[in-house]
Specification:
The complex is a heterodimer of chains A (587) and B (600). By secondary structure, chain A is α/β, with parallel strands linked by helices. Chain A contains 20 helices and ten strands. With 600 residues, chain B is α/β, with parallel strands linked by helices. Helices cover 64% and strands 10% of the residues of chain B. The chains are: A alpha/beta (587), B alpha/beta (600). Chains A and B meet through α3, α4, α6, α7 and α8 of A and α4, α5, α7, α9 and α10 of B.
């Protein structure tokens, strides 16, 4: 067990989640201990049957029966109480951890999501949470329950015969150690089996989604071999895990038997020699049987606690992640204004040592449309991302209507900015909910008007349930062009002061594109608009063009000025024209 | 407002619903399982034998303890040693049997499942594209993963648990009756109550667990979507609403789970109490019998030991029921999939296409997808070898269908398609696809290295050939800039590369396969200017000397084509070169006009 200080800290922090449930925790532990005490007492009484029988003590028998029944009832009631209280508490703690984690995820900035994949974060919130949840829910209670039982049984057996007890107890550490060892070695292997299983699923998925490629290249046999290779790995590992189980499980049941055999032999001789009564002998055996389960469970428990702590550490990694973009303590709401955007000496990089924007000075006039153009990597998207404060500048500043974006509240700032990404993300919800995403309280008329302006209304009403059609993962699939038009409607509905458009009309056919451009032209009226443009037709919408190269503004002006003066613009002008999309297959 | 749809549909589909218990269906299930186990008969038999042995041996200790008690009570230590030896021997035998049983069952089970996966995969590879268009990818994938896993639970743990628990129950009952039938009857009095409690619990908990699973599925789905869409969520300042929504979803899950906690909070203590009752019965009635000298003290002690043997197996068996149901449901789905026959199959007398020149003809081809409306209405098209044909037209005009028919992903409902005069239906599929290359729109790549992907169609190609192909299409330059060059892992579906780069790799892949006939679904998404031009050059290199069908979107490709075929509603309405068609002033001119106005 790697006992690093951080490890201990994590453990303490995990237990900290239980603080609000202190009382229910204490009651649960008391009930668990009480339940075990009743159990021990019942066994003690049950064990005295041999004495009663040997001594022919007929009068005691009914009392014995009644006592065992009564203790059984008490035990059952305590058990039920413990299960309900601890169960409720476990679920509440689980929800608390999940809520804390989610609240953190929502506050983390774009930079964080650039560095982490969805899959990684999901496994924190599901697999790791599961590990922690069992531990926080029942783990500590079980621990107390087991330890109490072990101590209680130990006391009883020592009272009965300390010599016999020594023999029996000798086996205990071995049993705990073996159980711990099993839990320790089996877990990584089982995890690996799951990992390999995921690989099998990946190969399968690829072949199913890409079946036309496999068939087109007649590669069925090769893919079959690939699939079988990865499936065989699962087989090998499963058999290995299985062999491990085959080894440890029988040993775990054999060790207590060994102790019992020793007790039978030694105890039998003691009874025959007269130094131990038959009743004590029987009782001893019954107690011994009670010890097996808690000892085994304790070993497993240590392994589980270790894994829970490791999982907890991964969860805390996320929770402790610094929030790069957050409201300043004295942040004020963005004051109303016409929408002037000012970049002053703005320097920015995704990692501090590699700036992608250098000292950008740029002022965007209210209500004007500016097209940013330049090669891939010239910094167009980065520059636009600074305005809604998706990232912060390293040096210099960005201001909206004279207010530095870092000095206003994020919410008031972003409410005034509409963003239309190149490949827009829509949620698994109805079309209406997606359009109204930024303004859930919008009326149906508002939603429809925004959709009409984005040229989306026509195709939306043709969908099976119109605006109530489910889209995304669990609904129908929309084409790229349709998704973009919904994204445009979504941005228009919030009626932003500033609009940021990432060449959002890339993949629709020429006829639709012409209409979207009409819609956009309408939508841009009265708003400061930044278009990240790749093509002439989009550039044509702009009042002014800004050319970026290697993170610097190298030219700005109207079409005619740039056509003669700027090489990048000329390149787009010539080739952009050649590579125009002719017609489009709407999937 | 609720943004998120309950994710039930995903999890509900996995719930076990088996309504067909007819003998015919059952026989098919058993036959399928038998076919899987047949190659491993010896191991299966060994697994069963060791299972029987392990269960039998586990029944011995309480009896031996009881006998020991009787012996020592008589003050007899002579036999004591032997009982202890028997005790240890039973334990040791238990180790051997349990080891053998765990190993053999595990091995056979896993082997059967691996075989099943392979069979399923092979079958899926054989199925025609129509199957893939009728079924969602997610559903097909879950046959190979979730359903096989559901079977796994049954085959490895389920069967063992079933046999072991049943045997323990029966064995214990037999021993009890053998020891003393009166006491045995008295002890078993609690069994009906136990059975009833279990039945009620099983029914209710089945429902509660399903609800919990669904609610958890919803939590996971919400989380996955919100993380994936976090940027949008933040851009539209939906943080607070999203937190609220997540809390709601999370609370639903807690509530659903609480009902399972309540159920087991009642059931398990009840079972525990019943076992106290059984103990009390043994004590009371057994004590009376012992006082009367009808049974020995040892028998009473042994009974006390065996009582617990009754309660665990019943609980285990009740849990098994759900596993069993979902496994049968999974098996049914797998059998149905295996029964699905490919629509396009080689004719018995199929010939190989050899030394194809690349002359392609469509003669009166009609086609409809399944029972859908006809999409091609008697298409005639004659393409001489080596010609580049651009297919243009509105969405739904039938451009992609033509490409799919040429690759024989489907057969025409009427008419025929020939290559060098050979009807596709009498050519073997393998030889057809060897002479044909397809470059799909998105440039679908596989996880693996760049080199693996380029050599996809010819896995035996040498590194120099791979590099030559990449160089020819101009992919060499960016590949060399990747950290491991051609050995760089591309990640799932080539996610490490940009769209344009993926396209170039797909071109190199097609070039290396060197097909006589090429089908190309041109990409519509915009890539940046530098890449765009490189793709255009690569395309020229790729098309050189081949018969090519291009579903064309780029004007440059269309203008360069030897033949432009303009389609409208499943029919050829115009064909010719760019200049001819422009002169004709028909549909092509108007499509071109749309384009021209956009560019203006």
């Amino acid at each position: 067990m790697t006992e690093s200080p951080r490890y201990r800290t994590t453990f303490v922090r995990l237990v900290g989640f239980l603080r609000p449930y202190k009382w229910s925790m204490i009651v649960s532990i008391l009930l668990a201990v009480g339940q075990q005490a009743a159990g021990l007492l019942a066994v003690f009484l049950t064990g005295s049957i041999a004495g009663v029988l040997v001594d022919e003590n007929r009068g005691l028998l009914p009392w014995l029966v009644v006592a065992v029944l009564a203790l059984g009832a008490v035990r059952a009631l305590m058990m039920a109480g413990r299960r309900l209280i601890a169960g409720r508490q476990a679920l509440s703690v689980e929800m608390d951890v999940r809520t804390v984690l989610y609240a953190k995820l929502v506050r983390l900035s774009f930079g964080f999501y650039d560095r982490h994949q969805t899959g990684q974060l999901m496994s924190r919130a599901t697999v790791d949470l599961q590990g922690v949840r069992f531990f926080l829910g029942y783990g500590l209670i079980f621990f107390f329950q087991h330890v109490f039982t072990i101590i209680g049984v130990a006391i009883f057996v020592f009272l009965i015969s300390w010599k016999l007890a020594l023999i029996a107890v000798a086996i205990a550490p071995v049993l705990v150690a073996v159980a711990y060892r099993y839990s320790h070695v089996s877990h990584p292997l089982l995890r690996e089996v799951q990992q390999k299983m995921a690989d099998v699923a990946t190969v399968a998925e690829e072949n199913i989604v890409g079946v036309h490629v496999v068939k087109a290249f007649a590669q069925e046999d090769e893919q079959q071999r690939k699939f079988e290779r990865s499936s065989e790995e699962v087989f090998e590992l499963s058999v290995q895990a299985n062999r491990q189980r085959a080894f440890y499980v029988p040993i775990l049941s054999f060790l207590p038997l060994l102790a019992q055999a020793a007790v039978l032999l030694a105890g039998g001789r003691m009874v025959a020699g007269g130094s131990l009564s038959v009743a004590a002998f029987v009782r001893f055996n019954l107690f011994l049987a009670m010890l097996v389960m808690p000892l085994r469970a304790l070993g497993m428990w240590i392994g589980q606690a270790q894994r829970a702590t490791a999982s907890g550490e991964r969860i805390f990694q996320v929770i402790d992640e610094p929030e790069e973009i957050a409201d300043a303590p004295d942040a004020v709401p963005l004051a109303p204004g016409p929408g002037r955007v000012t970049f002053s000496d703005a320097t920015f990089g995704y990692s501090p040592d590699r700036p992608v924007l250098h000292d950008v000075d740029l002022e965007l006039e209210p209500g004007k449309v500016v097209a940013l153009i330049g090669h891939t990597g010239s910094g167009k998207t980065s520059l636009a991302s600074l305005v809604p404060r998706f990232y912060d500048v390293q040096d210099g500043s960005v201001a909206v209507d004279g207010q530095d974006v870092r000095e206003v509240t994020l919410e008031s700032l972003r409410r005034e900015i509409g963003v239309i990404a190149q490949d827009p993300f829509l949620f698994s919800a109805t079309v209406r909910d997606n359009v109204a995403f930024g303004r859930p309280e919008a009326t149906d008329e508002d939603v429809q008007r925004a959709s009409e302006r984005a040229q989306a209304h026509e195709f939306i009403v043709a969908l099976p349930d119109g605006y109530d059609t489910m889209i995304g993962e669990r609904g129908i699939t929309l084409s790229g062009g349709q998704r973009q038009r919904i994204a445009i409607a979504r941005a228009l509905l919030v009626d932003p002061r500033i609009l940021i458009l990432d060449d959002a009309t890339a993949s629709v056919d020429a006829t639709t594109e012409a209409r979207i451009r009409e819609g956009l032209r309408e939508a841009m009226r009265g708003r400061t608009t930044i278009i990240i443009a790749h093509r002439l037709s989009t550039i044509a919408l702009a009042d002014e063009i800004v050319v970026l190269e290697d993170g610097r503004v190298v030219a700005r002006g109207g079409h005619d000025e740039l056509a003669t003066a700027n090489a990048v613009y000329r390149e787009i002008y010539e080739h952009g024209l050649l590579d125009r999309v002719f017609t489009e297959e709407v999937a | 407002m609720r943004v998120h749809q309950p994710g039930g549909s995903l999890t509900r589909a996995r719930g076990a619903e088996v309504d067909d218990w007819s003998w015919a269906r059952t026989r098919r299930r058993l036959a399928a399982l038998y076919r899987l186990a047949r190659p491993y008969k010896t191991r299966t038999v060994l697994a069963i034998l060791s299972l029987l042995g392990a269960t039998a041996v586990a029944l011995a200790p309480p009896y031996l303890v009881g006998r020991t008690v009787d012996e020592v009570k008589r003050g007899d230590t002579q036999l004591l040693g032997w009982f202890v030896v028997a005790f240890v021997a039973a334990g040791a035998l238990g180790i051997v049997f349990t080891y053998a049983q765990t190993y053999f069952t595990g091995w056979t089970g896993e082997r059967m499942l691996a075989d099943l996966r392979h069979t399923l995969f092979r079958h899926l590879q054989r199925l025609s594209l129509g199957f893939y268009e009728r079924n969602r990818a997610g559903v097909i994938i879950s046959r190979l993963t979730n359903d096989v896993e559901a079977l796994d639970q049954l085959v490895t743990d389920g069967v063992t648990s079933l046999v072991q628990n049943t045997l323990t129950l029966v064995g214990t009952a037999v021993i009890l009756f053998f020891l003393d039938w009166r006491l045995a009857f008295a002890t078993l009095v609690v069994m009906p109550a136990m059975g009833l409690a279990t039945a009620v619990f099983r029914k209710r908990s089945g429902r509660a667990y399903r609800r919990t699973r669904e609610a958890l599925g919803m939590v996971t789905a919400t989380l996955a979507e919100d993380i994936a869409g976090m940027r949008v969520l933040q851009a539209f300042t939906r943080e607070r609403a999203a937190r609220e929504n997540f809390r709601e979803v999370s609370d639903d899950y807690r509530a659903a789970n609480m009902s399972t906690v309540m159920l087991s909070g009642v059931y398990f203590p009840a079972v525990d109490f019943l076992s106290s009752v059984a103990t009390a019965v043994v004590l009371g009635y057994g004590g009376l019998l012992a006082f009367n000298g009808d049974v020995s003290i040892g028998v009473v002690v042994a009974f006390l030991g065996y009582v617990t043997n009754f309660f665990d197996p019943v609980q285990q068996l009740s849990q098994l029921y759900n596993t069993f149901l979902s496994a049968v449901a999974a098996l049914d789905k797998i059998i149905d999939l295996l029964d699905d026959e490919p629509e396009v199959i080689d004719a018995p007398d199929a010939v190989d296409l050899e030394d194809v020149t690349g002359q392609v003809a469509f003669e009166g081809v009609r086609f409809a997808y399944g029972r859908g409306p006809e999409v091609l209405h008697g298409l005639d098209l004659d393409v001489p070898a080596g010609m580049t044909v651009a297919l243009v037209g509105h969405t739904g005009a039938g451009k992609s269908t033509i490409a799919k028919l040429l690759a024989r992903f489907y057969d025409p409902t009427e008419g025929r398609i020939t290559i060098d005069g050979v009807d596709l239906r009498i050519a073997s599929q393998e030889s057809l696809r060897r002479s044909l290359g397809i470059v799909p729109q998105e440039g679908f790549l596989f996880a693996g290295t760049v080199a693996d992907n380029i050599a996809f169609g010819r896995p035996d190609a040498g590194r120099d050939e791979v590099i030559a192909a990449a160089r020819a299409v101009g992919a060499d330059e960016f590949v060399n800039r990747l950290e491991h060059g051609y050995d760089t892992e591309l990640g799932e579906r080539g996610s490490r590369l940009s769209l344009g780069q993926r396209q170039l790799v797909a071109f190199a892949r097609a070039l290396l396969a060197d097909p006589r006939i090429l089908i190309l679904d041109e990409a519509t998404s915009s890539v940046d200017i530098g890449t765009e031009r490189r793709i255009e050059r690569a395309l020229r290199r790729l098309l050189h000397g081949r018969t090519a069908f291009i579903i064309a979107h780029r004007l440059s490709t269309i203008r360069d084509a030897d033949l432009i075929v303009v389609l409208e509603h499943g029919q050829v309405v115009e064909q010719g070169t760019h200049d001819e068609l422009m002169e004709h002033r028909g549909l092509y001119t108007s499509l071109y006009g749309d384009w021209a106005s956009t560019a203006a």
